Amino acid sequence: MTLSIRIDEVSKLYRLGQVGTGSLTQDLNVWWHRIRGKGNPYELVGQENDRTGGESKGFVWALKNVGFEVSQGEIVGIIGKNGAGKSTLLKLLSRVTLPTQGMIKTKGRVASLLEVGTGFHPELTGRENVYLNGSILGMSKREITRELDAVVDFSGCSKYIDTPVKRYSSGMLVRLGFAVAAHLRCDILVVDEVLAVGDAAFRMKCIGKMRELSGDSARTVLIVSHQLGVIKSLCNRVVTMDRGTVKSVKATEEAVSEYVRDVRSGFLGTECSLENSWIRLTSVELQDRERSSVEWHTGDEMRIRFDYQSLRETPSPAFVIQIEDDCGYELFRFSTSPISGVPLGKLHPRGSVELRISELPLVAGEYSITIGLVAEQTEWLARFENAVRFEIQPTDYYDAGFCMRPGQGKVVAKHAWNHLEC
Predict the structure, then answer these.
(1) For residue 312, what are the contacts with CB-CB under 8 A and spacing of at least 6?
(2) Which of 277, 287, 273, 283 lies closest to 308 in space, CA to CA?
């Protein structure tokens, strides 16, 4: 396949606290080493890319030896913790800044949407900024005019299109910016967290447009997002970054599952409780009928049992159990509140609670369970995030001769089809 982006051993070094090295002589020396393909002579030898201690060292590697390739027509997601170097990488791709070392090759025009208002001149109107961005991409006035109505309609800013964008709200800027990037002709589209901004209706419209772009074999898209559900639904592959380096480049499902597993490994069983919480969990166990189980299949019976200690009397208490998927989205919530018809009654100083699910309606994948205590049906007294995790194996739930696997929905239900002649 034709390569659209090639990133070869790219590194970006920042000096903390000042611009340049501090003297013209040293700046010229750095420049001379760079054009000869050599490293920074003032870089500390063997310096680790640890941003927590960067101030004492004076330098920090935002990126270190990053390298991967993207084929034409791919939609690639970039994920990682805050500070992993994702946004810095997109700035290098967009040529906002240059790499300290390495090489980036792109084929075709690059359009980017890195943050609210990127590429917009505040004194120009929305219409003028559309023409400005199109001109930067190398489009003619006739080509921009042909797409103008679609851009304005998608953004929902038709009423204000002739108003200077400095008077736009941040939401209006994002809508217009995404509309420009998605509709004007470009070969590579770079998007940084824009799908996390704006109201729900606009986010759904953006996701729909990105899915439409995924069918365009000529358009390459790179997306940085912490919304793992969006990454899973849109991307062909995922690049996972950590401390300025590429940790892995894998298929979407595998990469997201691995990333969530790493993130949650340090938080399993921890308590996220409000002040003055009055309860402790002493054990949490998953059981299959009368025995403990570690392997689960779609349709199994599951019993969630936990022991607690109550430190004081609680008015109108209710236990809540939430089952969440590998992206942290809540799939089910079970409660002992009076609304559900199973009031808990008074808490004992020590007690046990068991929830029985007669048939697990979940497809293959990884899931976690959060347990909490609520007072007066609304106030959280304690909340134990990811108290326990479990994994469901692929299962031939419908007796159809094949197994339901990850990526084929989240839940199952007994059902029947009828085919009627009209």
Answers:
(1) 278
(2) 283
Q: Which long-range contacts (CB under 8 A, 24 or more apart) does 44-52 make?
A: 49/243, 49/244, 49/245, 50/243, 51/83, 51/243
| Interatomic CA distance for residues 183 and 181, integer angstroms | 6
Angle at which helices 141-155 and 126-136 pack, to 10 degrees? 130
Judge whether 314 and 278 are in contact, CB under 8 Å. Answer: yes
CA 22 to chain centre: 38
Domains parsed from the chain with CATH numbers: 3-108+187-264 (3.40.50.300), 279-393 (2.70.50.60)
Give per-residue pLDDT as tens, 168-221. 887 788 888 888 877 877 788 888 876 655 666 777 777 777 777 766 667 888
Using DSSP's 3-state secondary structure scheme, residue 56 falls into: helix
Measure the CA–CA gap between 175 and 210, rounded to whole angstroms.
14
Tokens 């995030």 -> residue: 385
Strands (E), 47-130: 59-71, 75-79, 101-106, 110-113
Longest dimension (CA), the chain: 85
Give the residue ranges of DSSP H helices in 184-251: 200-214, 228-234
> 315 φ, ψ to 5°?
-75, 130
Q: Where are the alpha helices (DSSP H) in 6-105?
A: 24-35, 54-57, 86-93
**Range picked from 141-150, 194-203, 268-277, 287-296 for highest mean pLDDT:** 141-150
